[in-house]
Amino acid sequence: MKPEAVQRAEKLLGGAAATWAGVVRKGYSMNEHWTVVFADGRRAFLKCGHIPPSPQWIREEHALFQAVRGPFMPRFLAFEDGDRPLLVLEDLMPAYWPPPWREGDVDLVLGALAEVAEVRIELRRIESFLSNGWHDVAADPTPFLSTGLRDAEWLERMLPRLVAAGDAAPVHGDSLLHADVRSDNLCVKGGRCVLVDWNHACLGNPGLDIAVWLPSLALEQGPPPDRFGVDELAPFVAGFFASRAGLPKPAGAPRVREFQRAQAEVALDWVERTL
Fold this sequence. Notes:
Radius of gyration: 19 Å
CATH architecture of the largest domain: Alpha-Beta Complex
Number of strands: 9
Order of helices and strands: HEEEHEEHHHHEEEEHHH
Number of helices: 9
Largest sheet: 5 strands, antiparallel
Distance between the termini: 58 Å
Strand content: 15-25%
CATH superfamily of the largest domain: Aminoglycoside phosphotransferase (APH), C-terminal lobe
CATH topology of the largest domain: Aminoglycoside 3'-phosphotransferase, Chain: A, domain 2
Helix content: 25-40%
Strand order of the largest sheet: 1-2-3-5-4
Number of domains: 2
């Protein structure tokens, strides 16, 4: 039987689907994903949200597609709201999705992020929803200590410096941020990097898009974070992952805590080197 999301896409795009396939991405939200090939040869990628906060994330991503278009984004095709919002985009599944990171791929990502940073738009600012995570660790260190990444003695010794360094990190700015850069949210097509999953977009220091990406890049055998000139943001990035890695698993992204712990491990080593 033809999936509901595919039937809705047929109505939105005005064509019959010839084939379709469910997509299990390596991302961490619980959105429903489909690729569709229409009888006339058109291809589309479908995102359908059904487990909170995924429905709202899809609405927010659609809002950004209405305000911003660029070669660093997939082509927008259609949208339908409702209890299960549906976003229809260009199908990028045939593109190259790192890892492994080939020669030149990292530079393509940096080039795309530079283009993103040039966009000027009215949008929420990163400080309106994201703060220095070390304050959360100070308020309740139990989740962080439960990860086993560092012990209580280390935390007592380092926490005052981490809080101060996180507060001093230059996160403010007027540039567009993707705010969730990692390999499952980007691909290489036609000699360019294309970023997907724009639901966390906001305004801030463009260096943050690079800094937040670096722990996962290092985990995928990419260059170490110290080589990118954004060390002043290391305390903020480490606080982000350290304050979340030990929290309960969210229903909408049950696999994300394990990945956040791995990124926290890289980011903590990075911030120790910078401090």
